[in-house]
Amino acid sequence: MKQIQVFVRHCFYSPNTELRGHSRPSWFDKAAVFQNLLDTTDHNLADIHVVYDEHFGKLEETFLSKFENVTVINAGNEAQSFLKTLELVFSYDFDDETIIYLLEDDYLHKPNWSPILLEAFTLPVEYASLYDHLDKYIGKQYRTLSSQIFATKSCHWRTSPSTTNTYASRYLRLKEDKAIHKHYSESAQKGVSRDHEKFVYLGKSGRRLVTSIPGYSTQCDDMQSPTYDWSVLVGKA
To answer: Are 71 and 50 in contact (CB under 8 A)?
Structure first.
């Protein structure tokens, strides 16, 4: 079994795209983003599992139809798809030290992200994200934010109070925190997991989250990781 197990959630259509702050850049293309994941993953380190929500469209109608490792679910919104993905993750008998990377379908990655993610877990942390969320730099609520900075072999990291529902953790920690992860999706508002509140709670419970600086991934919306032109990764620069 590879050190990293990626569970990437895909759907035919996501109601989340209608939320404020989630408009797509002109170069966004789901197929290109998925190809980027395949191209940038070190397949000696990571396995990729696709979880496809068929609620708004069948798998056969998508570019994923030829990808072999796909689990089809019927959820209809982000929170339910996350809960079903958790069920799938916990159905495996992974080693406790395995890194589980829970990923959404609108994240681009830089080359070499796989070993960088492993470096995060050489630190005294429980959770890690490769997304250097822009809100930590421009959000009024973060003007006085204080972070601890770490350095690993290839990257700097900062502690962060929260991130999105794309993140990584050791399998053991994910199992220990299972009830928390479920609660903040089961209590979702308008079908969207309360990811910010979840990580704030985890932080208060002693769980430490770090994000890479600069980002090795970005969500493809209005809050992209800064200092990099992400369009080059889909050939749209």
So the answer is: yes
**Do the beta carbons of residue 212 and residue 121 sit within 8 Å?**
no
Domain CATH number, residue 181: 3.90.550.10
Hunting for tokens 């797509």 — which residue is that? 24
For residue 45, give the DSSP letter: T
- Structurally, the chain folds into a number of domains equal to 1
What pTM did the predictor assign? 0.95
Instruction: Give the model confidence (pLDDT) of 162-217 as tens digits.
Output: 999 999 999 999 999 999 999 999 999 889 999 999 999 999 999 999 999 999 99
Residue 169's nearest CA partner among 198, 197, 208 is 208
Q: For residue 28, give its domain range.
A: 4-234
Distance CA 96, CA 66 (A): 31
Residue type, 20: R
Cis preceding-peptide flag for 214 (omega within 30 of 0)? yes
DSSP H/E element including 87? helix 78-90
Beta-strand ranges (E) seen in 54-192 are 70-73, 99-104, 107-109, 127-129, 149-151, 156-159, 167-170
What are 124-154's pLDDT values in tens digits? 999 999 999 999 999 888 889 999 999 999 9
- The number of CA neighbours under 13 Å toward the Cβ of 106 is 21
